[in-house]
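Listing 4. Sequential folding, example run.
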Amino acid sequence: MADQKNNEEINEAVGEKSVEWLQFRGGVFTATIPLVFFIIWAITLSVTQMVTEEALVLGMVIGIVLGLFFVKSKWADYAQSLISGMAQPVGVVAIIAWFWAGMFAQLLSAGGLVDGLIWLGFQTGLEGGAFVVITFLLSALFATAVGTGYGTVATFGLLMYPAGIILGADPVILLAAILSGAVFGDNLAPVSDTTIVSATTQEADVPGVVRSRFKYSVAAAIPAIILFFITGGGGEEGSLEVINQLQSEVSPDGLLMLIPFALVLYLALSGQHLLTSLSWGIVASIGLIFLTGTPLTEVIHIYMNEAGDPVIEGALMSGISGYFNMAILILFIMASAYLLEVAGTMEVIKNFFLRIIKNVTRRAEFSMFGIVAFLNMFITINTAAEIAAAPFVRKLGKEMNIHPYRRANFLDTVTSSLGYIFPWSAGVLIAWTTIQGAAEQYEFVPVVSPIEVFPFVFQGWGLLIVMFIAAWTGWGLRYSGKNGEEVKPEDYHQSKK
């Protein structure tokens, strides 16, 4: 009877009636072994500067195998849970977004946009910290328009990162600016998965949620801009020989590729789906490449090599193949995170926080902050972490009658921030993978490790600080009125008397 009740509670937490729940030796927190092992593995590789995509995948596989030896349920159920975790739509959508964004970025690069940006920097004197600030603002705009932080990282890592390096931007700060722009857009974009999930899971409307969190995003962005300007100019502009050579080679022709870039922004801001917007951007980019006389082999080149084997190259193939290993890694992470749900770990966490709030609003908000941060530490895809945390935030918030907008803001801001801060998070690993590809194209591009960029994602850290202050002081706190309207604390408490 106890097992049946536990089964029902876990299935309710997971949101599915047909889920086979798992039991682990050592209790529900033993289910975290695969993810904990992966985190330790990833940090160790980063510190020793031995991290590779293949090594990260291997670490996740080893963690999953280790978890197998601690499960008390049937091994077949453990395997089925892993497959169910991989099949979750949120992971598949993220992978498809990377592929589309990767193709788009590679086409813009093939059309000469990087050269055009470098030429613009030479002509305007926009270098160092100023270039870093522009990169942050443009990536924030792009992420807000298209609604994908991962796609933004893939696009700007291939375009703005090489240009900024040659123009004297500090490599670590420049990459942090790109990640910060992704944080801003992921948090604020009406079409972002995290925005939609945070609103719908808290029973709120998307436009209202976006309006209510704008003040938090801006409060973090202003000091981030100042810090990027101050710290962003510490890079070396490269040898004089390289600069002189580039000045003679680059031209404004590549700036024509800003047209498909602007088209994607327009379509996304008009409410078109991410894949629709990027698809039109891809078509427009190919058309411009054709009109400018660039060989179409830069887009796609199919031929037989000397061994008689077929080879496919070009921007379209590079945009997809550059993320194959990362796609596999994300699927394994999704599978491991799903174990926390079917093992009942999530239910235990929720009950713990319910016991400590004791009818105090500040404690409830700090608990929401803490539980979202905790889950993001283990579930490194931000939307997946948000989905996992959403039932807890809703339960804790409703206990104190906190308005859905406020609950959605705690859920999204913390998730969007940490998804681009932790060295093992998907956003940071995508950035690292992207600049590795850029380094293969441009000899002067350095590759910084995920752990180096960790302290400098100013927008992410700023949002965390802003929300911590909001929880501590009650800034922006609103309760739900009788008809679901927002009620200020003083009016709410007065109505209770």
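-- end of first protein; second protein begins --
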Amino acid sequence: MGEELPVIFTTINNVLTATDTKFYVKTVNFIEQAVAFSENKEYYLNVVRATKDAIKEVLNFFGNDPHDSMIGIENTLLNIDEILNNPGIDQLKGAFKGRPGIVVATGPSLNKNVELLRDVTDKAVVVGADASMRVLAKKGMKPHMVCSLERMPPTAKLFEELSPEAFEDVYYAAAPVISPITYQTYKGKRIIVYRNFATFKWLDIEKGTLNIGPSSGNMAFKILEYIGCDPIILIGQDLAFGEDGNTHATGSTFGERESTYYENCLLVEGNYSPQVRSSRVWNMFLNYYHKDVLNSQAKVINATEGGAKIHGTEIMTFKEAIGKYVTESFDPLAAIKKTLTYPDGETLTAQRKQVLDKVDQGLMTCGKSIELFKGCHALCMEYIEKVWIPFSQGQPYNEAEGNRIVTELEQSVQIFRDPDFFNVLMHYVQSYAIKTMIEVHDITARDLPVHEIQVNVVSILKDMYEVMIQLIIKMEELLKVLKEKLEAELISG
């Protein structure tokens, strides 16, 4: 028997994320060793599933739709004042080294132990998923931070109708890809937390960057890890249906049974049961927890008291975890307040000018990229007219001319590695670019005649160039809006 499945998932996920091997995922073949397979058939079938899950999660991380990515980029640029005016999580890096931290998620098991949280907020740093805000507020409790990363406006509903007191001394540690409406709805102080997106590298206004998974629970974990907490204790992180079929804790904004989670259900290993019922969405969050916990230097305690098993964690009740690890009093809130600083007017003006320079450079990059892709599109049309149409009419295939054009087209994709293109545009277009390169490598790996390979490659790239031109034009328009905003603010002082 080989490695545990979460380790396999994490290893493959890490390799695909960090290297160009992601471009070759359609060429992956599983080679069966008959004796080993027959002896451990279930294990190897699960290895195949783990590999496919790792591939799927990597592609999901890089995005499925450029228009969806554009929402995050547009939100980021619209949130520029939030970014400039507020401190970043980098100011708290390592500030709570060796102190316990608690992730509060809103799975149905939170009902079992949430009351114990009341007496430990002076003994641990408490970071809640955004959905926990209302649940805790109804019980008269608060986390030290609450985090969000969802780009769409409905996230704002999590904070609607809360009293002003509910926001006092609760820092909103959000990724500024969230909707401006969500920021407007949250009435408390902010901490800026970047995800590992090229857009934030391009802005070059350091706030602290974390490799965050897809849920606010994943985000809470990474925040606690980043600020040095050890151990990290999870509560309410079920990632599975409760015994009564509930999806969330009592008092959750969208109710205790959200219907969307009942779609595409599956069984996963449980903390206290051999198997528990989960969903595809929760399983995605679970896979990122496997990865984050296995990569973490901190001890991780799963005190969820139900739900799915997160490999690498130590399972115990929240009461046991408190008794063992949450024993020494300190003042997390005072430490956060003392550490965080805000930029002065001179710094804000300098940073606005810096961003304006970045915008000007971004507009130049957009213009150059559009011209390059227009030239490449013209080259595709040249192939069709000079090589493919004559061949389709019965003439010999002009392989030399086909080689010249395809080689030139393939060289054009090196722009994806250009630092300016990468920082300004790659996060926006990467889902389409990666999908295109996967299809190209899939075609070139097949045992096909040269003319079939070349015409398919040209066709795939031609479609990409057409889409890229339109996508980048939209980015140009967005950057022009930001440029006008920054220039007006600099003039007004």
